[in-house]
Amino acid sequence: MSESNENVDIRAFPPGKIIGGRWRIIDKLGEGGMGAVYKVVDRNRKNFYGAMKVKSFVH
Q1: Predicted local confidence at residue 36, as pLDDT
Q2: CA–CA separation, 10 vs 46, rounded Å?
Q3: Is 3 a domain residue?
Q4: 44 lies in which domain range?
Q5: Could you tell me if residue 5 is inside a domain?
Q6: Full 3-state SS string of 12-42
Q7: How many CB atoms lie within 10 A of CB 10?
Q8: Max Cα distance, the chain (Å)
Q9: Number of domains in the chain
Q10: Cβ count near 51 (within 10 Å)
């Protein structure tokens, strides 16, 4: 996975959303004051799962 320093609205990541043309959001694993962590699956590599941390711009 790549890393980005962009702060985004974590509400914009519903299950099924495709990120970067590659990663599909499966579920939200957790959320805190700094952002959220999502379970994702790689669309290019069958059955390859990972976690994606998304920093929130709302503090």
Answers
A1: 92
A2: 26
A3: no
A4: 10-55
A5: no
A6: HCCCCCEECCCEEEEEEEEEECCEEEEEEEE
A7: 18
A8: 36
A9: 1
A10: 11
Contact call for residues 55 and 9 (beta carbons, < 8 A): no
- Measured distance CA(28)–CA(12) in Å, rounded: 12
Interacting residues of 3 by C-beta distance below 8 A, sequence separation 6+: none
Sheet holding 23-32, edge to edge: 18-19, 23-32, 35-42, 49-55
Q: Structure tokens of 3?
A: 């890393």
Task: Look up tokens 């994606």; give the residue.
Answer: 52
pLDDT digits (tens, 9 = 90+) for 9-49: 656 899 999 999 999 999 999 999 888 999 999 999 989 99
